[in-house]
């Protein structure tokens, strides 16, 4: 049995040990001598004093337990290592049994191994050593001389030796206890510093964790946007590549026919040229649609507010779309609701919204009707809302697909798509334009029964032609352009105050308290962006309508900083009516995606 396996056991087979000496243990004095010899050998080999005492004590316990065994002997061996190990093996003959108490006591001190042999037994104790203080042959000779010189002490001498060892151990323990007290005192002081540091670091870590959590949330959102962009790109190549190839292949094929058959009749050539023109117009319409969607999504599409005649818009749609209705499908548009003759809006955007919705309904309605109904009702804030509802009796959209149809390039799969060309841009484009105009678009559909799409837009009445403002402030650093702008503003304002830079503009606005501001962006040190931010930050000036005039191309970030303005107008093609409509326009709709603050911070 093993009391505790030693770490050097696996190395014993690698480096053969050097036998030092064997001594018989036939008398009590021999057992006492074993203790003294083991300590002396350990000291000679450079062992620590406490290690030498542990070895001597372990062998003393084993020797007393085995006293009286037949042919009891002790063998000293040295394994050079590294690490070096002093091994002492007690062997005996016959059936003598080593008491468990002695084996357990030795095992608590040093690695101890016991085993039975054919005619007896052995027990081995190993003591690890540091670097040897000499060569192995030299140390082996000195150890043999030392063991040969040792004689067995009396019981009294052995008792005195054990007492000395005990006193030395107690002194060592006392020194260790004092050292431990000193270390504990230092540790307590260190702990107080660590606790203070931990408290400070915990606060910093907590703050950092909050930042990390916010960062992870932002990363998750960005990852979702990237996944959606990747899916949109895949749908784009799947849908648009086919839509682009069809008219291009038609143009190329018909052109090849014309070139190959130069003698074709004039009627046939005219027909082929007509088909080429149709394919070219189809291709141009597709490219225009893609560009319009890209502008809307990038935030570079602004509504051009102007008086809008809804009756004229509905009449235009009826005339252009009636030819798209299949036989057996009735197209009913209007009438316009009772109310103001003219509303304030963007006619181009409104026509595109309704044309996309109506053409989409006509495409997937084989019988029944497609209808556009209009009405004006009170909104949640009490203001008038224009409600435009397109209903059809077409195939309908499954509930699990009704949100996905507003993803760019997405189309509901099924046999209904055969023979119906499209890119999957109509509904997303219509909803984005609706949002730009400050409205909402809602879809309700049931497969087999049809679809209803409701567009709700603010119904701002257009200002009367004779509307005038008491005071307008015009801000531009170009004196020539101010000379062009002044007559236009005189048509709609009783008084016009001019300012040539940003600082003067803020002073003029605070002094004149105008009804509206026409603001250039590039003004020098205090530019139009800063003026607009200061106006937004001032509670008394926040509600004054501001119209931006610029000849520069604006990025999405630039437009986000201009969100407080009522409108952004190009400097070319200005008119008094256009400026008046812009000043009366509602505030721009909030962007669908998060954008930088208006002040650029």
Q: Please provide the count of β strands.
A: 18
CATH architecture grouping of the largest domain: 2-Layer Sandwich
User: What's the mean pLDDT score?
Assistant: 80
Q: Identify low-pLDDT runs.
A: 4-13, 415-419, 589-601
For the termini, the CA-CA separation is 78 Å
Using the coordinates above, name the CATH class of the largest domain.
Alpha Beta
- Which value, in Å, is the CA radius of gyration? 50 Å
Determine the CATH topology of the largest domain.
Heat Shock Protein 90
The portion of residues forming beta strands comes to: 15-25%
Instruction: Domain count, please report it.
Output: 3
Name the strands of the widest sheet in spatial order.
1-5-6-4-3-2
Mind explaining what this structure looks like?
This protein has 601 residues and is an alpha/beta fold. The protein has 3 domains: 2-153, Heat Shock Protein 90; 306-458, Histidine kinase-like ATPase, C-terminal domain (Heat Shock Protein 90); 469-584, Response regulator (Rossmann fold), CATH 3.40.50. Helices cover 48% and strands 20% of the residues. The protein has 15 helices and 18 strands. The chain has helices at 9-12, 28-44, 49-66, 100-109, 136-149, 155-260, 266-298, 310-321, 347-363, 426-436, 479-490, 502-512, 528-537, 556-561, 576-584; strands at residues 2-4, 18-24, 70-79, 85-93, 112-116, 120-128, 306-308, 329-333, 343-345, 368-378, 384-392, 440-446, 450-458, 469-475, 493-499, 516-520, 546-550, 567-570. The strands form 4 sheets. The chain has a 6-stranded antiparallel β-sheet. A 5-stranded mixed β-sheet has the order 8-10-11-13-12. A hairpin with a 5-residue loop joins strand 10 and strand 11. Mean pLDDT is 80; it is low at 4-13, 415-419 and 589-601.
